[in-house]
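FAQ

Q: What does a record look like?
A: Structure on top, sequence underneath. For example:
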């Protein structure tokens, strides 16, 4: 099997000028008047709901330094610092454009900003952090894409394939012959685990999510088990195979909590939502937004890790 390496570095460094067109779950919930909030039991933003969810998984009194990798527009960190202003926060991003947005939104807080690539960060640099957040950006990391067409492999691809072989052997992973490989996600998680980060939160579009019974009358999907391409403006991303990340964390003896975003973004199937979900062709922009949002919160998974 021939592989090609999909990367988004050039796009994020040089071409990205806005996330307005790329509606992440976090961004969809940030405006107070967002129709997506009407879908949930609690009319709050993503960061607030995630922060309250983490209340049950960690003690904020024990968290001093928090790092967010790929902070987007800064919305999630704004919520965290509003609820816990005592935190010392650092945002790391490869995109100078997004860092500028983060600095603007978080100007009221004492925050450090690093324009760096997490894949190039030395493990020792991560040692001071008690909590690392990486939300809805694992799919931006390099992915080895299975390609049956013959062709010459670049040095970068060959290096990534060599690294993939190391992970497959060390962590007993077993990708199929035609399976795409989330090599960047593997490398980042291993680095965080090697640094002994006390708490790690990862969230992203999953290729292993299963539609719950209550959703099947409206939307039905089955897990492919193979990271899928998502074509976006100027770049492609890939969904994540969380079971492999779980195996990596297990070898470092992390306690693992895994589930769908609906564990903390709890849907409320009101009559309005049911009507929108039953519409084969949405008759309004709001119905289309609701349909997509319901799909997303069931397709996205999180992994929360706590060091033993």
């Amino acid at each position: 099997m021939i592989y090609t390496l999909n990367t988004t570095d050039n796009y994020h460094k040089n071409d990205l000028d806005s996330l307005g067109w790329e509606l992440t779950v976090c961004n969809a919930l940030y405006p107070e008047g967002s129709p997506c909030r009407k879908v949930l039991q609690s009319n709050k933003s993503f960061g607030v709901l995630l922060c309250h969810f983490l209340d049950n998984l960690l003690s904020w009194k024990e968290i001093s330094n928090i790092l967010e990798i790929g902070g987007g527009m800064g919305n999630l960190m704004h919520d965290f610092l509003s609820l816990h202003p005592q935190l010392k926060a650092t945002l790391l991003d490869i995109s100078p454009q997004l860092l500028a947005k983060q600095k603007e939104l978080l100007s009221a807080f004492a925050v450090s900003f690093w324009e760096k690539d997490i894949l190039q960060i030395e493990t020792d640099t991560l040692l001071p952090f008690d909590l690392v957040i990486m939300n809805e950006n694992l799919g931006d990391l390099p992915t080895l894409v299975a390609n049956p067409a013959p062709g010459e492999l670049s040095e970068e691809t060959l290096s990534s394939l060599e690294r993939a072989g190391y992970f497959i052997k060390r962590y007993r992973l077993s990708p199929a012959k035609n399976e795409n490989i989330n090599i960047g996600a593997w490398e980042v998680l291993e680095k965080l685990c090697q640094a002994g980060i006390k708490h790690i939160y990862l969230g992203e579009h999953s290729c292993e999510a299963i539609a719950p019974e209550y959703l099947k009358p409206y939307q039905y999907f089955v897990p492919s088990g193979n990271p899928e391409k998502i074509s976006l403006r100027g770049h492609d991303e890939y969904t994540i195979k969380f079971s492999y990340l779980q195996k990596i964390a297990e070898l470092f003896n992390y306690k693992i909590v895994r589930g769908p975003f609906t564990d903390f973004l709890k849907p409320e199937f009101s009559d309005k939502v049911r009507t929108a979900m039953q519409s084969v062709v949405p008759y309004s922009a709001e119905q289309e937004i609701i349909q997509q949002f319901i799909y997303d919160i069931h397709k996205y998974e999180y992994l929360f890790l706590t060091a033993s």
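Q: Is there anything notable about this one?
A: The radius of gyration is 19 Å.
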